[in-house]
Amino acid sequence: MSSHDGQKALHFDHVSVRYGKTTAAEAVSFAVPKGSVFALLGRNGAGKSSLIRCLLGQRRPQEGAATIFGEDAWSNRARLMARLGVVPEEPDAPPDMTARQLAAFCSRLYPSWDGKGVETRLRRFAVPGDVPFARLSKGQKGQLALALALGSLPELLVLDDPTLGLDVVARKALFEELVDELAERGTTVLLTSHDLAGVEAMADRVGILKEGRLLVDEPLDDLKARFRRVSFGQSDVTPHGSDAMKALDPLALKQASWGMEAVVSGFSEEAFARFAEAPGASDAEASPLSLEEIFIALCGEEGGRP
Amino acid sequence: MRGFTAVLSRELGLRKAIWAAALVAGLLPFLLAALPGMTYGYAEVRDASALAIAVGAGELLALVLGATVLGRELAERRLSFDFARPIGGLAIWAGRMGAVLILSLGSALVILLPATLAGGGLVTLLTGATARPEIPWYWPPPSPLGMILLYVLNVLFLAALAHVLGALGRSRSPWLLLDAAILVAIGLVVFLAGRGLYRQNAFFGLAAGALGCALLLVTALLAAGAAQVTRGRTDARAGHRALSATLWSLCAVGALGFAGYARWYTHLSPADLADIQFAKVSPGGQWIYVGGGARHRSDLSPDFLYNPTTGASLRLNIQWREELAFSKDGSRAAWVEGRDRREIMTAGLGAAQPLATKTGIEVAGLDWRLALSPSGRRLAVLSDGTLSVYELAGEKLLASARVLNRNGENPPNEVFWKSRMLFPDEGHVALFGVLSPEAKQSPGSVTIRRFDVASRKLETTGEIGGLTGYIFVTPDRTGSRLIVSQVDGGHWTTSLRDGITGALITPLGPDGHAIRAAFLPEGGVVAWGGSKKKSNLWFYGDDGALKATANLGDIGEVVFGSEPAPGELFVGTGPAVKEWYRHLSLVSVECATGSSRLVAAGLAPLSGTWWPSGQVLPTGPAAFLALAPDGSLVRVDPATGRETVLIQGTLKPKESRFSGLSFSGQRF
Question: ipTM score of the complex?
Answer without folding.
Answer: 0.86
